Amino acid sequence: MKLHISHTTRYTYSQPLLYSLQTLHLWPASGPCQTVEQWDIRTPGTLHAQPDGQGNQVHSFSLVARAEAALKRITVIAQGQVTTHGTAAFADNGRLPPAFFLRSTPLAEPHPRMAMWALQTVPALVAARARGEQPTVADLVALASAVADKVQYRPGSTGVETTALEAFDWELGVCQDQAHVMVAVCRSIGLPARYVSGYFFAEGEPELASHAWVDVCTDLQASHWLSLDVTHRCPTDERRIRLAAATDYTACLPIKGLRRGGGEERMTVDIQIEPLAG
C-alpha cells in the first residue's frame, strides 16, 4: 500500500520564547516492513541529523530568539510517501543485540506480578519459555489479545508519563499504554520487546493516525522479530507506517524539546494519511 502522510505539529507560547532545542523522531526508515519513497521535514531552524544507537533516524534543530523579533510560535511539518509491505515477521540485524531490549526502562519495567499474570493467562507461552523454546505467532497473538482485555482502551484515562505497571493496575489506557504493558510483560517472562511509534491508516478515522505497537523477538540468535498491534489484537499489516522503535515511548517520541522563556506552551498536532494509486 502506498500512503501519503502529513504530520504537522504547532507550538504556541504566551510569552516570547528565548531559546528552543527540539529532537525529532519523525523520519521513517526503509526496511523489511516499508520503503520510504520520499520524505521531508520542514522546521524554522536548520535541521541536523544525529546518531541513534537504537537504529532510528533522529534529527534536531535549535532556535535563538533575536531581540527585534519576538518568537511565539514554532511549526514542524513532516511529510512524504511510504510504500508499506504488510510484513509482520522479519529479521533485524540492527546495531543492538535483541537482549538489549530485555532491560528495564522507566515506562516499561518488568515486574513479578506481570510474570505471574502471564503464567495464569497464557500458560502455554510461559511453559514454552521455561523449556527454552521460541514463542509461536499464535501464542504471542494470544498474549497481545489478553493485554488488550486487561488494559481496556479508554482515551483520556492516562498520560504520556503513565508507566506500564500503572496501566496494568488501573486496567485502562490507550495504544501507548497497551504497548508498554505488552513490552513489560514480555520482558517479565524473558522475551526481548520494544516499543514502536508510527502511523495507522484507518479510512475516515484520522484521530487514529498516531499509533503505537510492539516488536517481540521470536529468535534471539537469528534476531527474528514479530510486530504486533496490541490495540487491534493482531500482527501488523500494510496499514501501519513505522517511525521509530526503542525501549519505550520516552526513547522515540516524535518531538521532545527544551526551552527557555515562552510562558505557557500549547501544542496541537494534525496528522493526515491518504492512500495513493499504485
Describe it.
With 278 residues, this protein is of the alpha+beta class. Helix content is 19%, strand content 40%. The protein has five helices and 16 strands. Strands 7, 10, 11, 12, 13 and 14 form a six-stranded antiparallel sheet that branches. The protein has a four-stranded antiparallel sheet with strand order 3-6-1-16, with no helix packed on it. Strands 4-5-2-15 form a four-stranded antiparallel sheet, with no helix packed on it. Strand 11 and strand 12 form a beta hairpin. Helix 1 crosses helix 5. The model has no long low-confidence stretch (mean pLDDT 94).
Could you provide a short overview of the structure?
By secondary structure, the chain is an alpha+beta fold. Helix content is 19%, strand content 40%.
SSE layout:
Layout lengths: L1 E12 L3 E8 L9 E9 L5 E3 L7 E7 L8 E12 L4 E3 L20 H10 L1 H8 L6 H14 L1 E2 L10 H7 L1 E2 L1 H14 L4 E8 L9 E10 L4 E6 L4 E2 L4 E7 L8 E7 L3 E12 L2
Parallel strand pairs: 8-9
Antiparallel strand pairs: 1-6, 1-16, 2-5, 2-15, 3-6, 4-5, 7-12, 10-11, 10-14, 11-12, 12-13
Distance from first to last alpha carbon: 8 Å
Strand content: 35-45%
E-strand count: 16
Number of helices: 5
Radius of gyration: 19 Å
> Could you state the oligomeric state of the chains shown?
single chain
Structural class: alpha+beta
Q: Overall pLDDT, averaged? A: 94
Order of helices and strands: EEEEEEEHHHEHEHEEEEEEE
**Percent range of helical residues:** 10-25%
Q: Estimate the global geometry from the Cα principal axes.
A: globular
Which stretches are poorly predicted, pLDDT < 50 over at least 5 residues?
none
